[in-house]
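User: quick one
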Amino acid sequence: MKYGVAIFPSKTLQDKANSYRKRYDPHYALIPPHITLKGPFEASDSEIKTISEKLEQIALDCKPFTLNVLKVSSFKPANNTIYFKLELTPEIERLHHALNSKDFFEDKSEYAFVPHITIGQKLSNDEHSDVFGQLAMVDVAHEEQVDRIHLLYQLENGSWTVYDTFTLGEE
Amino acid sequence: MKYGVAIFPSKTLQDKANSYRKRYDPHYALIPPHITLKGPFEASDSEIKTISEKLEQIALDCKPFTLNVLKVSSFKPANNTIYFKLELTPEIERLHHALNSKDFFEDKSEYAFVPHITIGQKLSNDEHSDVFGQLAMVDVAHEEQVDRIHLLYQLENGSWTVYDTFTLGEE
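Assistant: Done. Structure below.
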């Protein structure tokens, strides 16, 4: 089974992201707007208990933190994904690190962690220039508190279901 | 903001439900397959803390229980919804009662609680006869354990995001 760990931002920020995702993100219907903390990883059904306990400990060791949306950015030339760029604070970096270390299904990705909320992906080059050209100018500055993370698993149709929720800094 | 409380069954059962929902349920993309324990209710953003605490207490007072899928059934003539009918056990009835009592956003619905997983809705009468005629014969018998419930809120596009998860019978 495929699992992942994510933050769902506030309704306000999700609604804003969805206003773009609706048009530009083919994953629009598969998962609400989110910040991926740990990309898809394989684990058996029987491992889920251990994963949950581990996540509870990681969440407990972190504190609620401020999320800052900075601007609309793009991963081009790596790919044509357009996203809300978030401030890389020590808190979110620490959380990401704990979730991808060798103690927890190590992620050996060669990419640096760029915290973001995807608003468009799998665009053609022309679409990308067009959409990014318009959105790069939009003021999306926004600040909110994050106090929880979610463990999700993927269904056969590609959509994601929440299995558990962990509050940061709380038993 | 609109909130609701639901159970997400296992991946196996969700995949089975989705194989029908994909074709027959226009809410397919808005929420994963679920059992509604408390239908949409309005609460302000500031009430969410109190709601969460209340739900934690309700979950704590309940124990994990067995979910039994009995057969495919329909709400016709009330409406054209087709669903997996679940056994009305004392445990799920108690949970539903606690979540809809006058202590917790009382639901004065005149309908009796019929625990179910919707697999088709908003069908025309002809579609309903057709689809229900086929599905009523399908053996969907299935049993699994339920040990958690989720509090969700609705986004502007009609989709639902999980806010919190509560484990039954556990602090």
